[in-house]
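Q: Sequence in, structure out?
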Amino acid sequence: MGKLQGKVAIITGGATGIGFAAAKLFVEEGAYVFITGRRQKELDEAVNAIGNNVMGVQGDVSKLTDLDRLYETVQAQERRIDIVFANAGFAEFAPLGSITEEHFDQLFNINVKGALFTVQKALPLLNDGGSIIITGSVASAKGTPAFWVYGATKAAVRNFVRAWTVELKDRHIRSNVLSPGPTETPMVEQQPPEAIERIVSTIPMGRMGTSEEIAKAALFLASDDSSFITGIELFVDGGRAQV
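A: Exactly. Output:
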């Protein structure tokens, strides 16, 4: 029997990268998974690749009407939720002196506002004893040139989880942050090569992580294997934030 047998999971940003790897693994472990993504083509491709026990719902987590449609779809399927993996995110480099309002708003709207309302709107459907996971980043703990607005968004969601651990304790809902280091994903591949090379040089293990490695950590936080773990930030980063 799989570690998530009979569970229902929401994974935002599930069409590519870490979200897709997690959705695939969760289904393999027995879950039924709803995934979201902004681009319908990539979402359809992800659903087809995973095969069974998955449904794609197109949407942008920074738009509350899109999140409403996601949870209306869950209700229409007569399902309740056991796992919320607020994974959708956006990253972009910009140094001090060239920060624009658009850069700031896009990062905070997707990474902070999106995570908050993904979780808040899930609460009426989230079973007691459920698991909330938010994708953070080592950038929240490391000062990285031109990447600190992104890092600030991830520091914000770290504080969300600390508070939710206390607020949701009577419902026995666990909340944790999963913080990858630099990981081989389509979003990272879009960043300037010199910036990625500089960051990789700071990883003690000497390489980037894979989406599958991060997905295995998400499975741990989603499953009963982590039944006495809440309020933490689990770094899966090759040691980058630790030394």
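The mean pLDDT is 95.
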